[in-house]
Amino acid sequence: MSPQFHAYNKNGNKEIDFDAIAVKLVTENIILISDFHDSYYYDLKKKEKIADDALYAGEIQVVFAYDTKDFEIRNPDGSVMKKNLRECGYRFSEGLMPIKDTDGKTGFINEKGNFVFECPIYGFYSIYDPKIHPLYDFEFSNGIVCVPESESSFALYTKDGRKLKTVRNSRTEQRKFTSGYMLISTVDKAQKQYAFLNYKGENAFNQFFSAAERFINEYAMVVVDGKDAVINTKGDVFFCADFVSE
User: Fold this and answer.
1) Is 207 left (phi over 0), alpha (psi -120 to 50) or beta?
2) More confident of the two residues 173 and 32
3) Are the C-beta atoms of residues 152 and 159 closer than 8 Å to each other?
4) Taking the CB of residue 113, how many other CB atoms lie within 10 A of it?
5) pLDDT for position 58
6) Segment 65-114, tens digit of pLDDT
7) φ/ψ (deg, to 5) at 242
8) CA–CA separation, 105 vs 14, rounded Å?
9) Contact (CB, 8 A) for 64 and 71
């Protein structure tokens, strides 16, 4: 028999039970339920299963239309906000979403479906499940977004479409800023190095690392001179060996 999961409301009252081996929260009201035989999405607010051809992203749905092989963005009432999209983000961030339409036009639209600004967006990631993971999920942070322009360059834009800077001979290692920084890497695979970009498009700490991970809760793991270390948002480096007692 599968373990049983319980869903509670904010008042602490039990809403519903599930016989499942795993339950994963997808959005505020949507959960993914897995048992020994099947996996399905469930709307906790409506208390019903979600059809396989739709997945809510906040209050707006991003739907993959299998008949046209394109994406559609639908309003909460079910009306189509934007259709004929080859690729798109899975949610709006700071009111904007990146898209590529069937004409090949790329850029960011607002929550009315109108283009706020056009910009080149280079994509090379494959879509494994179009219902859940649309391609373009570049997110704004403090009014700044970082998008790739080619395999070896990316640009920073403001919400009104003003390009702040193009960074060449580098790649982004993540899709959004975390703790105010974007992890990037050099293009040279033989001597690949990592750095942290700030909102101005600058090497925040004027330093490259032989290995690095993105910031999580204002700390990031790095390798300095062959030694494991942790860096904070001020650029202070703490070597892991200093914290290990013999």
Assistant:
1) beta
2) 173
3) no
4) 14
5) 47
6) 777 778 888 887 778 899 998 888 878 889 999 998 888 899 999 999 99
7) -70, -20
8) 47
9) yes
**SS3 per-residue string spanning the chain:** CCCEEEEECCCCCEEEEEECCEEEECCCCEEEEECCCCEEEEECCCCEECCCCCEEECCEEEEEECCCCEEEEECCCCCEEEEEEEEECCCCECCEEEEEECCCCEEEECCCCCEEEECCCCCCCCCCCCCCCCCCCCCCECCEEEEEEECCEEEEEECCCCEEEEEECEEECCCCCECCEEEEEECCCCCCCEEEECCCCCECCCCCECEECCCECCEEEEEECCEEEEEECCCCEEEHHHHCCC
Question: φ and ψ at 29, to 5 degrees?
Answer: -115, 0
pTM of the model: 0.70
Rounded to whole angstroms, the Cα distance separating 7 from 19 reads 12
Rounded to the nearest angstrom, the gap between the alpha carbon of residue 17 and the centroid of all alpha carbons in its chain is 30
The string over 124-144, giving b where at least 16 C-beta atoms fall within 10 Å of a residue's C-beta and e elsewhere, is eeeeeebbeebbbbbbbbeeb
Which of 5-19, 154-168, 228-242 is the least confident region? 5-19
Q: 14 forms bridges with which residues in the sheet? A: 8
Supply 101's token pair. 């339409």
The CA–CA distances, whole Å, from 95 to 117, 142, 202 equal 13, 12, 26
Rg of the chain over CA atoms, in angstroms? Answer: 21
CA-based end-to-end distance of the chain: 47
At 123-158, the pLDDT tens digits run: 755 444 444 445 567 889 999 999 999 889 999 999
Q: Are 149 and 166 in contact (CB under 8 A)?
A: yes
